[in-house]
Amino acid sequence: MADRDILPGTVKPVHYDLLLTDLEFKDWTYKGTVKIDAKLTQASSEIVINTWDVKLHNVKVSVEQTKAGQTFESTDFAYDTKKQRTTIRFKEQLPASAKAQIVIDFEAIINHDMSGFYRSQYKPPKDTPAAASVPRDEDFHYMMSTQFEACDARRAFPCFDEPNLKATFDVALEIPDDQVALSNMPVKEEKPGNKSGTKLVTFERTPVMSTYLLAWAIGDFEYIEALTDRRYNGKQIPVRVYTTRGLIEQGRWALQHAPKYIDFFSEKFEIDYPLPKSDILAVHEFTHGAMENWGLVTYRTTAILFDEKQSDAVFRNRIAYVVAHELAHQWFGNLVTMDWWDELWLNEGFATWAGWVATEHLHPDWDVWAQWVNEGMETALGLDAVRASHPIHVPVRDALDVNQVFDAISYLKGCSVIRMLANHLGTETFLKGVAIYLKKNKYGNATTQDLWAGLSEASGQDINTIMGPWVEKIGHPVLTVAEEPGQITVKQSRFLSTGDVEAKDDTTTWWVPLSFEGKAGTQGIDTVALTTKEETIRDVNDDFYKLNSNATGFYRVSYPPARLVKLGTQLDRLSVADKIATAGSAAELAFSGYGTTPALLSFVQGFSGESHYRVLSQALDAVGTVKGIFGEDDDIRRVLERFILELIERPLSTIGWDFPAGEDFNKGLLRKRLLLAAGVNGHTGVQEEALRRFRALRQDPANNRPHPDLRRPIYRVALKADPADTVAFLQDEWRTSNAPDGREVSLATMGHVFDAGVVTRTLLPFLFGRGSDCVPAGDMHYLASGLAHNRVARPLLWQYMRENWGEVVAKVGGNPVVLDRLVKVSLQQFSDRGALASIEGFFAGKDTGAFNRTLETVKDRIRGRAAYRERDAAVLREWAAARGAA
Prior knowledge:
- One of its GO terms (molecular function) is zinc ion binding.
- The structure is a single chain.
- By secondary structure, the chain is an alpha+beta fold.
- The protein has 26 helices and 28 strands.
- Strands 5-4-8-2-1-11-14-13 form an 8-stranded mixed β-sheet, with no helix packed on it. A 5-stranded mixed β-sheet has the order 16-17-18-20-19, covered by helices on one side.
- Helix 3 (344-362) packs across helix 6 (408-425).
- It is globular.
- The model has no long low-confidence stretch (mean pLDDT 94).
């Protein structure tokens, strides 16, 4: 594999026996011994193994040959820090052997970087006593857990850390006897440890699996439990949610879902859940949303904890979906694992799709596929429309490279093309193909071709031919429609948001399911597909037709301007997903120059009678992008604000501030979005009521807490009225809130302050400082994103990052994922070529290896935004003047 920087292949691990002892909480070190049963495939005088921040002490290799055995020892280690490998050199040559054991004594660090084996800081609830041995300092208590995906098992113990080097694992942990240890499998035995006050916890052996799925955790944990309805080998499976002490009741919403999802997927995939238990653990510091460790899934607290009285309802939806996503991985990713990281989409794209399928099963009233089109597919189309994007199946050379592929292409475009294919085949046929794929490859590794083979067997269709370009090629098409009486011609071409497609960019011909509605004399959706660059469809109803019905296809549609206007008057004939996708396409086409901003706004204006949360969200998102790019022009901004208020006037007039019991889930989300949009854009009545409620809260916090869903609308208005005081209040909320989402809501909100002095004096030191009263690295993106979306704060944020780059890099420590995400959210909202030149100049001499892919997409986004502003500024000023800009 010339395109992969991988281990030599002379050692094939079969089983690991891992023992960790001597955990020291002052210097955060530990000792370990790992015994690796392996095959030595050829004679060699060295063993190359993955390590990072791990110090080896002694290595002993026992080799069985016929009836005799040989033992070899070494303390000769060559560490390659960049490649995260250690070469163990022996004075004699190790013979090839089908049965060998490698025993390594080592020591390592319990780091604070949210990768490998690491510690998380937290503050237990008041009046909640912690176990005596729990590590603590003046500010925090600590728990410990692991995060090994993508390539960080090597940071906890020496191992052959590649996804296709699967093995079984025995894990034993020596821990304080008043704490709890968890791992992938149930506890096998507990007995006193070698040190006073400790116990040795040994776990059952795992199935064959990849190193990145191994997990353990140590802390002051408690749990709640439920059982699956189905029986597995005659027994119901215990499902537990674990938290640090005092938070366990916030895990009940997740626990209502997890057992049902296990049963659902066991039936749909035609393979019973393969482990004897399923644990969920809330981790206080976490890079992503969650991690699918087999049998011990770990979560960011806001992705798993929910308080019925204190949490924003949006987290009800988030938790239900994330739990489903992670449990889908127990089959798709864990039982069958991609062969190498270039096939990451096999894990993530599928788990995303399956997660929404399962969420819809439990919550049909949520309209989750409309949500998907609004939030998921639009995000995927956005990233896929920049020249610096990448194919779903993307070359991945090494560990640093893979971290940047955990993005909207692998997750969201991956899900989009799976959803498109499942819609084409029918969900039942699609799932039958998935079951074939899983059964053929269980406990092994697989490729995209293996999935296509299973789906082809189930459907009788050549899946590789129709799906190959979607996975192997970069980008997606825009279908440009030309009309003649009674017929249309549809032409596909590569879509770029910069609007500058060249011949070399447009070499792919996609299989495009048209989902066409509007054949004269017929009803329903025609399943015809476009398989050439251009095709004519005849017998078309001149009054009404549409492409991509229900937005099941991953592409843009460019209608003639008059047709788009007409569709704006025929919204009753469009489904919710149709409206969202058509508005999304109109916005992107205006952005790229295929259409114009006035045409977009005219179409969006037709949504003024709309009351569906997801449709109005898409409309407000579209206008919000225009406002974000052109809003530095005061006249344009004022007219756009008035336009937004007119757009939401009708639903706002009836929505009110109260949340009736038993209200529809989406209705509650609509209220929050309407009040937020109204307050931010200058609605006098909403602003007055928001300020009244905020002042009442300041006067008597105990008795005047706002409804959780009203916090953001109220806080955003208060930020405008009194920036310094409101930021001080939000920082205090960040420190003291008992709500699971309190810290996230506070950080995400305070970044929208328009006072440059507050940004410079208060928020930037708070964001980038290293003390206990500063934002932890894993949460920096919440505040940075708000600042970056803020026209006043954006340049100040970038100036600070330029002037203090060493400090920025030092804060994220050894976690490239955090640095990659920070660069993305902080810089991609610029809309001028001066900022682009500044970014290019600053990073020209820097090591950008941890975020080079992301940096290129950021620069492409800025190019697109700058081109859009240059192209449409004059016509938008004319539009504003015609609407009475003053």
